[in-house]
């Protein structure tokens, strides 16, 4: 029997040269007459160890990493196909502390299975949730989701079950399930890892949603920056359709659900749900007024469930193991687990799925290993470009929606970007305004004009031009954006700007202790 | 200037294969840009009349999305991530280096039409910052020297 060798196809790992590693392993084994089967899996999410090659052995999978093509001959010399000693040997993958201490529910299969093998998916508990859902009515399915306490993982944290119930209770000849895969937040990549590493779990989650509310058509709106994810999704949709898990009369249930992946075109604002719907309809991604809610008048004016990738990908395990199983993880009103993405200036960047309640400090130091540069971590931005910058004094905050609200911060989509002490926070505040100006859809004035004025005012503050008066003006402007913008883009840009000003006044030319105006 | 026949065929094919989809405009524009690298101004009126839209509506969509180009790109497109995670790992210096190697600013194409330099806001490669994309290939942990190497490889004719 041939030996299974795993080399990831995740695009982050490809960006480090995984294809060349796979090609070199294949060539070397051919030269030596070794019988191997190379499986292109997703990533386990320990990116400082990528390209991490795994070998299937009777005692479990043994990892080697980070492997470069030039390491391959010596790996063969040292009998790595049988778990032999080598300076890159990491031992049993499951025992690596970064991975061992996680609670992987949504990411249970990522990095373990072949992403486009439906047999592999089924062998690892795949489609158990759907099979159970097919025996239930819509109300019962939605009760299970509501019981789980799942809240939208895209950032808004709205209870998923309530959204679904609204769609269920709105009568219409056509309903839609839309997956928001426009993962534009800097520092986030969990959606990408799911789509590239376990696409069937997303497909299953969307199918369950469709069956629950009677929607027969689904769309995945995928950002154009993710060409690899598109390829994997299209492959997986074709396989699921061929095996009767998508399409007409799914598994003989008399229920239908069709799915198509659509490509966005590089507009950050299309991650906002109504802008995304406009874009799917073939228009400019201009934000809509709410109400009406998309659950009542969504895509093409029809009732629509629009959920983030992680929300939908968490549904199969909830249906499989029950809402209570999922709810038993977490703290307070934040139930279940959150796939956290460590990014920026950290020694060990990667994906950490943990129950809510883990602290920022544990994530930055125990998992992240401190800064990559070796300098002190000065600021972290949590929740993407619209998230607050937090100073060291707030690192003990637990990851919990309400705890973050209490310190005027957000968890968002779970991205954490660390900066060392070389960061200039006035610069970062300016960047937040600049980004808002570039990405504004232009519909509301506070966002469209406010962001441009914001850049100008911060430039004056940096240049020490009437600094105190301009800081007062900047606060006033942020107040207008915060309260007067139509959506989160203009409405939350004040989070990074004001948190930078409040926590790091010295970078704006103020005394460290001086609470600015 | 009239369009070459090949471009006309690409536009017709993109319209024919997508026109019956709900929300067909973005898939049509992608079909065109995938094949000829940009959306020629001449395509706008063709699409408008085929989809029964005004030219202003089609142009409005093309110009709204950063991804759609209205001018031909260079032979290769270098996109450098400008977002926070990559900034934390040196993307500002990386961008400056790219500008000086290629002797262009962001959104410009080199005089020899070899490279277009574009900013991009997150490639989802934040665990391996800073990240760049050259054509469809993502590269992680790119130092300024590594970038120079990569550009040389592409210049030497790696397709």
List keywords for this structure.
A: 517 residues; alpha/beta; Glutaredoxin; Rossmann fold; Ubiquitin-like (UB roll); five-stranded mixed sheet; 16 strands; B: 159 residues; Arc Repressor Mutant, subunit A; 13% strand
Give the C-level CATH assignment of the largest domain in chain B.
Answer: Alpha Beta
Percentage of β-strand residues of chain A: 5-15%
> What is the number of beta strands of chain A?
16
Which outline of chain A best applies?
globular
Biggest interface between protein chains, with counts per chain? A-B, 59 and 41 residues
Q: What is the total domain count of chain A?
A: 4
Termini separation of chain A comes to 73 Å
Could you give me the name of the CATH homologous superfamily of the largest domain in chain A? NADH-ubiquinone oxidoreductase 51kDa subunit
Query: Main beta sheet of chain A, described?
Result: 5 strands, mixed
Widest sheet of chain A: strand order? Answer: 2-1-3-4-5
- For the terminal residues of chain B, how far apart are their CA atoms? 29 Å
Strand pairing plus helix content of chain B: what structural class?
A: alpha+beta
CATH fold field value of the largest domain in chain B:
Glutaredoxin
Q: Can you walk through the features of this model?
A:
The complex is a heterodimer of chains A (517) and B (159). Helices cover 40% and strands 15% of the residues of chain A. Chain A has 517 residues and is of the alpha/beta class. Chain A folds into four domains: 3-100, Glutaredoxin (3-Layer(aba) Sandwich); 118-327, 3-Layer(aba) Sandwich (Rossmann fold), CATH 3.40.50.11540; 331-420, Ubiquitin-like (UB roll) (Roll); 425-508, NADH-ubiquinone oxidoreductase 51kDa subunit, iron-sulphur binding domain (de novo design (two linked rop proteins)), CATH 1.20.1440. In chain A, the strands form four sheets. Chain A has a five-stranded mixed beta sheet, covered by helices on one side. In chain A, strands 13-12-16-14-15 form a five-stranded mixed beta sheet. In chain A, strand 10 (330-331) and strand 11 form a beta hairpin. In chain A, helix 7 (138-148) packs antiparallel against helix 8 (160-168) and helix 10 (199-213) crosses helix 13 (309-321). Chain A is globular, with a radius of gyration of 24 Å. The relative contact order of chain A is 0.10. With 159 residues, chain B is of the alpha+beta class. Chain B folds into two domains: 5-64, Arc Repressor Mutant, subunit A; 76-155, Glutaredoxin (3-Layer(aba) Sandwich), CATH 3.40.30.10. In chain B, strands 2-3-1-4-5 form a five-stranded mixed beta sheet, covered by helices on one side. Chain B is elongated, with a radius of gyration of 18 Å. The chains are: A alpha/beta (517), B alpha+beta (159). The interface between A and B is large, with 59 and 41 residues.
């Amino acid at each position: 029997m041939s030996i299974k060798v795993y080399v990831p196809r995740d695009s982050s790992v490809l960006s480090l040269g995984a294809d060349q590693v796979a090609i070199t392993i294949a060539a070397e084994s051919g030269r030596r007459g070794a019988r191997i089967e190379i499986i292109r899996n997703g990533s386990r999410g320990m990116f400082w160890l990528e390209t991490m090659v795994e070998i299937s052995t009777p005692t479990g999978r043994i990892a080697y990493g980070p492997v470069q093509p030039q390491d391959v001959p010596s790996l063969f010399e040292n009998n790595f196909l049988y778990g032999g000693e080598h300076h890159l040997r990491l031992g049993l993958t499951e025992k690596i502390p970064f991975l061992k201490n996680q609670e992987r529910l949504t990411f249970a299969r990522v990095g373990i299975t072949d992403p486009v093998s439906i047999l592999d998916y089924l062998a690892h508990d795949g489609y158990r949730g759907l099979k159970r859902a097919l025996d239930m009515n819509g109300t019962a399915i939605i009760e299970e989701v509501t019981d789980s306490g799942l809240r939208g993982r895209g950032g808004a944290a709205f209870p998923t079950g309530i959204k679904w119930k609204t769609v269920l209770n709105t009568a219409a000849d056509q309903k839609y399930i839309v997956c928001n895969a426009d993962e534009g937040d800097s520092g986030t990549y969990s959606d990408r890892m799911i789509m590239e590493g376990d696409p069937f779990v997303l497909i299953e989650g969307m199918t369950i949603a469709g069956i629950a509310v009677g929607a027969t058509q689904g769309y995945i709106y995928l950002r154009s920056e993710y060409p690899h994810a598109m390829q994997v999704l299209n492959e997986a949709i074709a396989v699921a359709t061929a095996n009767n898990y998508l399409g007409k009369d799914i598994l003989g249930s008399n229920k239908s659900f069709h799915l198509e992946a659509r490509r966005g075109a590089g507009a950050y604002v299309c991650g906002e749900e109504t802008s995304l719907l406009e874009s799917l309809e073939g228009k400019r991604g201009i934000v809509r007024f709410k109400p009406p809610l998309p659950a009542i008048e969504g895509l093409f004016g029809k009732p629509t469930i629009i959920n983030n990738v992680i929300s939908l990908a968490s549904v199969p395990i909830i249906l499989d193991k029950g809402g209570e199983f999922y709810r038993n993880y977490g703290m307070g009103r934040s139930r279940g687990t959150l796939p956290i993405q460590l990014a920026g200036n950290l020694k060990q960047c990667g994906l950490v799925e943990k129950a809510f309640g883990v602290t920022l400090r544990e994530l930055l130091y125990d998992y992240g290993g401190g800064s990559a540069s070796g300098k002190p971590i000065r600021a972290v931005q949590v929740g993407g470009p619209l998230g607050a910058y937090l100073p060291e004094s707030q690192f003990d905050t637990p990851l919990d929606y309400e705890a973050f609200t209490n310190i005027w911060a957000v968890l968002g989509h779970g991205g954490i970007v660390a900066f060392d002490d070389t960061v200039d926070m006035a610069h970062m505040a300016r960047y937040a305004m600049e980004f808002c100006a570039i990405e504004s859809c232009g519909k509301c004035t506070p966002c469209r004009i406010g962001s441009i004025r914001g850049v100008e005012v911060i430039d004056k503050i940096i240049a020490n031009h009437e600094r105190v008066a301009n800081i007062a003006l900047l606060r006033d402007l942020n107040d207008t954006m915060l309260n007067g913008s139509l959506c989160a883009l203009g409405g939350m840009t004040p989070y990074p700007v004001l948190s930078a000003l409040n926590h790091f006044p010295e970078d704006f030319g103020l005394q460290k202790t001086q609470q600015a105006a | 200037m009239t369009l070459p026949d090949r471009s006309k065929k690409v536009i017709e094919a993109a319209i024919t294969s997508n026109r019956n989809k709900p929300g067909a405009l973005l898939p049509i524009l992608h079909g065109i840009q995938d094949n000829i690298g940009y959306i020629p101004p001449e395509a706008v009126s063709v699409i408008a009349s085929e989809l029964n839209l005004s030219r202003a509506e089609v142009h409005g969509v093309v110009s709204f999305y950063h991804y759609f180009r209205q001018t031909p790109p260079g032979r290769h497109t270098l996109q450098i991530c400008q977002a926070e995670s990559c900034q934390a790992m040196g993307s500002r210096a990386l961008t400056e280096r790219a500008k000086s190697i290629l002797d262009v600013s962001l959104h410009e194409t080199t005089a020899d039409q070899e490279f277009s330099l574009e900013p991009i806001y997150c490639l989802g490669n934040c665990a391996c910052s800073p990240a760049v994309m050259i054509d469809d290939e993502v590269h992680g942990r790119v130092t300024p020297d590594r970038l120079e190497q990569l550009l040389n490889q592409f210049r030497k004719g790696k397709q």
